[in-house]
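Quick one:
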Amino acid sequence: MSAAFSLARRGLGQVAPNPAVGCILVRPDLGDRVVGRGWTQNGGRPHAETEALRRAGSLALGATAYVTLEPCSHKGQTGPCAEALIDARVGRVVIAMQDPDPRVSGRGYGALKNAGIDVSTGFMESEAKAINSGFIYKNQLNRPFFSWKTATSLDGRIATKTGQSQWITNPGARRAGHLLRAQNDAILVGIGTALADDPDLTCRIPGLENASPVRIVVDGRLQIPLTHRLVADAKRVPTWLCSAEDADGAQKSKLTDLGVKILAVNGAEGGRLDTAHLAELLADEGLTRVLIEGGAGLATHFYNSDLIDRIYWFRAPKIIGGDGLATLQDLGITSINGTRAFTRRETYDMGPDTLELFDRNRSAP
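Output:
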């Protein structure tokens, strides 16, 4: 199953709105020989089980299938994976977790059992849930799984008092940040960051250039210039703008003509966009994993809405000082009891820098 998880991770950021699934076919009668491997392919098809069965061919007969998610039982753009496993006459199926999709949940398991196949479930379930957190959140909370990536000095500053930030972290840490982009369906930034940095927001790791996610800018008044880099190549790399419903219609038309997609978001107090509604719209568009990259205002707004599920904190051994730009704006917290708790899950050495991964302490959806 661990090998199946490794295969599943290959699909992260590339398969939405489908889950990232891995499948390993093993023949116990042939000394536990692996006869087929598969993972959800880009765009969500073919599914992992179909791919593993294709590679195994006739050797799938009597095999044990290790699958990271319950095989689908409904017919979508491809046939049901449960039916494919039955037709291949596998002998046993080991499933890590039940599918959260109500169209599937329990039905794939039932179809396999009714066909006389030995089925086991719940094996390494927590690992499976971690991989498909985005798919789970979309199905059960109608929003993507939001990760926030920040790169700071030791004292939590993302730039000097003049706004200079290139580069706080080292090249290795920045490459890791690009890999995070490839593993998410979309990158989300605020209009302030877009105007100040004119970012490309693509994955610039050799071999992963085509894995760049959707680029999303929260731009309530459509301030982004038509000549901005994100607009200029919107037909090459998908670019979306989240704007207020009453944003300038003529500007909308100009932007859409250049390939930009506009999402109309409800307003909230203080003239900002309603973050909860924005999250619902992104889920409706099929996004399951969204990486928040900046700036401090956008991150603060998502934090105050309790929509940050994971933090990737890159920390460089440098001190900028209290006059530098903080990674978050004022939160108005007056008591420690008013803070939100996160758990540090992993720590990585990134040369002189450090990457820490924190998950929000919340009940599973």
